[in-house]
Amino acid sequence: SNEEQLICESMEFRPFGFVRKRLLDEEIKTIIKRWCQRCREKQMISFRWGQDKEEIYLKFDEIMYIKAQGHYVVFYTKNRVYEERATISKYDYLLETKEFAKCNRSYICNLMNVFTIIDDNVVMNNRDKIAISRGCREGVWKKYNDYMRYEYGRE
């Protein structure tokens, strides 16, 4: 049938799943959860970038920090800067990992790339400074200390 042909053609793009219109609300949640789990397991994120919407995969250790900027999320990596039209809350699942901490409502930093924390600022390896809000201060310090203990075996 025509639908079968469409499914076969879509395989070229390696879809993560299919959503039936009549079950949209139920199935989309399941697929998003599965995708987030897969990304966590692979320790990477993916998004579409550029005019041709090329699929970009970033490993966690490549990301320095993520910044919310208007209707965009900006990924600062060691070599490039990427922009995606999204909200930073789309990447809140990263906060469940040991490597990422929310510094304020606009920044998520990668603890693997933190040089130091001075006063209320996270200083990244590239010397960019990210302010830590009062509401996030305790959480950032806890995650940073836990990460350092884990990374350097001082448990």
Offer a concise description of the structure.
The protein is of the alpha+beta class and 155 residues long.
H and E order: HHEEEEEEEEEEH
- Write down the overall mean pLDDT: 83
Strand order of the largest sheet: 5-4-3-7-6
Q: Report, as a whole number of angstroms, the end-to-end distance.
A: 60 Å
| Largest sheet composition | 5 strands, antiparallel
Structure description:
It is a single chain. With 155 residues, the protein is an alpha+beta fold. The chain is built from 3 helices and 10 strands; from the N terminus they run ααββββββββββα. The strands form 3 sheets. Strands 5-4-3-7-6 form a 5-stranded antiparallel sheet. A 3-stranded antiparallel sheet has the order 8-9-10, with no helix packed on it. β6 and β7 form a beta hairpin. The longest helix has 19 residues, at 24-42. It is elongated and about 60 Å long. The mean pLDDT is 83.
Label this structure with key terms.
elongated; 155 residues; five-stranded antiparallel sheet; 10 strands; single chain; 30% helix; 33% strand
Task: Please render the helix and strand layout as text.
Elements: H1 2-10, H2 24-42, E1 44-49, E2 54-59, E3 63-69, E4 72-77, E5 81-85, E6 100-104, E7 107-110, E8 114-118, E9 121-124, E10 129-131, H3 134-152
Antiparallel strand pairs: 1-2, 3-4, 3-7, 4-5, 6-7, 8-9, 9-10
